[in-house]
């Protein structure tokens, strides 16, 4: 993926995301519920990003979003 950013000459945005209060879901409803919620959240994230971008689960409730070819710094500020 990093090759794409180098070839385009456009900036690559890296966004680290942590789901606020996700621990509450696991504590109150059990880890099986939290495990069921994560794929649904991932699907929503994928529906909100561009086709060329990549979303990765870093671990637990942490995600990394790679924004390829952003043209302005303001684009990353909107997230």
Structural key phrases:
alpha+beta; single chain; 79 residues; three-stranded antiparallel sheet; elongated
Describe this structure in words.
This protein is α+β, with helices and mostly antiparallel strands. The protein is 48% helix and 25% strand. The protein has helices at residues 2-8, 22-29, 31-48, 73-77, and strands at residues 12-18, 54-59, 62-68. The chain has a three-stranded antiparallel β-sheet, sandwiched between helices. Strand 2 (54-59) and strand 3 form a beta hairpin. It is elongated and about 45 Å long. The mean pLDDT is 83.
Strand fraction equals 25-35%
User: Looking across the biggest beta sheet, what order are the strands in?
Assistant: 1-3-2
Main β sheet profile: 3 strands, antiparallel
Low-confidence stretches: none
Average pLDDT reading? 83
Number of helices, where a helix is a run of at least 4 consecutive DSSP H or I residues: 4
Helicity range of the residues? Answer: 40-55%
The total strand number stands at: 3
Radius of gyration: 15 Å
Which secondary-structure class do the elements indicate?
A: alpha+beta
Element order, helices and strands? HEHHEEH
- Measure the end-to-end span: 21 Å
Query: Which outline best applies?
Result: elongated
Short overview:
The chain is an alpha+beta fold and 79 residues long. The protein has four helices and three strands. Helices cover 48% and strands 25% of the residues.
């Amino acid at each position: 993926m990093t090759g794409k950013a180098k070839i385009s000459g456009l900036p690559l945005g890296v966004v680290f995301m942590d789901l606020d209060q996700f621990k509450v879901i696991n504590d109150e409803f059990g880890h099986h519920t939290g495990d069921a919620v994560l794929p649904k959240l991932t699907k929503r994230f994928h529906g909100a990003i561009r086709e060329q971008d990549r979303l990765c689960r870093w671990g637990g409730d942490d995600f990394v979003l790679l924004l390829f070819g952003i043209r302005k710094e303001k684009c990353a500020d909107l997230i």
